[in-house]
Design brief:
Blueprint (H helix, E strand, L loop, with lengths): L4 H12 L3 H12 L3 E4 L4 H13 L4 E6 L6 H13 L2 E6 L5 H8 L8 H17 L4 E3 L16 E4 L4 E4 L7 H10 L48
Parallel strand pairs: 1-2, 1-4, 2-3, 4-6
Antiparallel strand pairs: 5-6
Bound molecules: iron/sulfur cluster (SF4).
Length: about 230
């Protein structure tokens, strides 16, 4: 589906005024079966899945990038959602198993070259996950830090040649938590143990109160994004 740039701007302005559940409903309506939700089962993602399943007539298409080194709590939540929400979940796995990656590039590549590791275990599987879709939904929020300040409710994703919908773009941490709690959406217990952003186990640490929420990702590498949203 092609959304003309003028129409895209109109939608962007309109959706900027809507509440996140309304943006999710409008996006499902606009793109139908050709939209998928990216989920790492963080707080944003569980909220988005909940919103989508409230309005979708059929199962909601969701994918996660299963790098093989996610936290046990994340895998448990993923299973919980699979069993209790009407979703069609695709677990995108890297082409190289962890053993094959270690054989080719050495053990624990993330300690030496996290950019290459993210490319192999996240960026390439993402490209496969998006093939055949017109749009994807992400949990990007401007409050997540400087790298996300420019996010819009709907935008062209030229890199992947489709549209990116960011329904939570305007929400603060407090608004997100209020929604998850009032709707009783299951969430990762690590969020209450100092992990505002949860990625792969080897590359995520807890952050101190008041610290940049993404400072706990790839600590010591000057890296705050895995390349999915760059
Ligand atoms: S977050 Fe770390 S372990 Fe996960 S893919 Fe990136 S570098 Fe590898």
């Amino acid at each position: 589906m092609i959304v003309e740039s003028e129409r895209l701007n109109e939608l962007g302005n309109l959706w900027e005024q809507l509440e996140p559940p309304e943006i999710v409903a409008a996006a499902l309506d606009l793109f139908g079966e050709r939209i998928t939700i990216a989920s790492s089962f963080g707080l944003e993602d569980v909220a988005l899945i909940h919103m989508a399943t409230q309005v979708s007539p059929g199962p909601v298409d969701v994918f996660c990038l299963d790098t093989g080194v996610l936290f046990a709590e994340t895998y448990a939540l993923l299973e919980q959602f699979s069993g209790s929400y009407p979703i069609r979940l695709r677990r995108m796995v890297p082409e190289l198993s962890l053993d094959a990656q270690a054989e080719r590039y050495g053990a624990q590549l993330w300690t030496r070259d996290p950019d290459l590791c993210c490319k192999l275990r996240k960026v390439e599987p993402l490209q496969r996950a998006l093939k055949g879709y017109d749009a994807w939904v992400t949990g990007l929020r401007r409050a997540q830090g400087p790298t996300r300040q420019g996010a819009k409710a709907i935008e062209r994703d030229a890199k992947h040649d489709l549209y990116k919908v960011n329904p939570l773009v305007r929400w603060s941490d407090e608004e997100l938590w209020a929604y998850v709690r009032s709707e009783k959406v299951p969430y990762n217990p690590l969020h209450e143990q100092g992990y505002p952003s949860i990625g792969c186990r080897p590359c995520t640490r807890a952050v101190a109160p008041g610290e940049d929420p993404r400072a706990g990702r790839w600590a010591g590498f000057g890296k705050t994004e895995c390349g999915l949203h760059l």
